[in-house]
Amino acid sequence: MKPILFIAKRELGGYLTGPIGWICLVVFTLIAALFFNVTLVQIANQGMQLGMEEGLTEGVVQGFFGNLTVIGLLLVPAVTMGLVAQDRRERSIELLLTSPVSSLQITLGKFFGALAFVLVMISTTFYVPAMMYWMGEPDSGVMLASYASFTLLMAVFVAIGLFASSTTDNQLVALAMSFSLSLILWIIGWFGSALGEGSLGTILAHISMLTHFDTMSGGVVHLNDAVYFSSMILFFLFATTQRVEALRWR
Q: CA angle, 32 as apex, 7 and 54 as ends, to 5°?
């Protein structure tokens, strides 16, 4: 456990002291605030009563978190691109590989370090529920489900980014690969919808992250949605562990 915490602390410290971390944090905070204010203006222009529970929940909360997913899709690959790729490029990965630390511990340490920074990013949006409760009475269940689903989605993005970073020593390649994989898993459900209600369409819809995110963020939490996100995280962590292990024998 100590090696995992040490690596995670090292990665988190790197984000908080390096330019990439601060750029991503500032960009996320500013764009999130912009989306929130734009959503409020749109609701006001439509004449919706912000004091009503339905207006706050459907008009503001769900719309806001829907927009946040786009920010996460764009920024998380930048956050994770150097997790392993930078160590490989600087040859510092060799110190980890020759130390008494397992490949799984390396993977988990880097994952939790990046996830901790992502949680810091998410925490900058806590003014949203505060303002929602100040303006009216939003659905608390939907609010909590939106934060939970968004956090799980970001964790999947981190796991995908970590895997992409472990496959190359070029951070830009890792960024492009991470974004492409995340985007494919995000929009693949659209192809399922185009195919109709056949077996292939159903399978593609189930694979899509958007399908499960929309269900959870709407306040309807099913076990299969939690299992889906957990499975995606575990799959990419397993793939990363195998990739790190392969580096030991190169």
A: 120
Separation of CA 102 from chain center: 25
The Cα 48–Cα 144 span in angstroms is 23
Which of these, 210, 209, 214, lies nearest to 229 by C-alpha position? 209
Residue 200 tokens read as 């292939």
Tell me the C-alpha distance between 150 and 137, whole Å: 21
Contacts of 200 (CB under 8 A, 6+ apart): 192
Give the chain's domain count: 1
Q: Report which of 13, 37, 15 is spatially closest to residue 24, judged by C-alpha positions.
A: 15
Q: What is the pLDDT of residues 76-130, one digit of tens each?
A: 999 999 888 888 888 877 777 777 888 898 999 999 999 999 999 999 988 888 8
- Tell me the residue range of the domain where 113 lies: 2-247
Cα 27 versus chain centre, distance: 15
Q: Answer yes or no: pTM beyond 0.85.
A: yes
